Amino acid sequence: MHTSRSIAVLGAISAAAVLTACGSMSMAPTFNQSSLPPTIQVPAGNKVAMETVGVGEITYECRDKANAPGQTEWVFAGPDAKLNDRSGKQVGKYYGPPATWEANDGSKLTATQLAVAPSGPTSLPYQLVKANPAMGSGAMTGVTYIQRVALIGGVAPTSVPCTPATKGQKQIVKYQADYIFYKAS
After folding, report:
1. I want to staple 102 with a disulfide (CB 3.0 to 4.6 A). Which of 108, 112, 154, 180 is the partner?
2. d(CA 19, CA 22)
């Protein structure tokens, strides 16, 4: 009986220790940009305000290649994605053109691209954009920068040729990317 009581007491102490440890864990965003290429790191003085996972599609159109008469290429025509929080709940959408991030509360913004960096041969590049002032008030109000990271897919199609004969055709490719929103700290 004494042994059962000791085991019960040890179990209670262990459970209390686990609960204490969980209670002291920070619920703040955990994104760390230190492993990203320096060109797409957000400048000091900004902190993560929201982390989202964009899941959707990129449309490409077969168009004339700039400054190359008679040549064609797949050109980015626009995104269409749901923005989900880390638990998978939709919190907004990303669409364009122009590229627009819109929260469920109706606030939205466009941005100006500052830099891109390679992320992998089958994925879109990393991207850093500077946010334009938000339209409406809500989650997008005060956003200063957005990073596109953790990329899967989204590159121009390779299975369908873009030729002068197919000019004007569109192809849709699936992609996923994390969009990290920053605000001034």
Report:
1. 108
2. 5
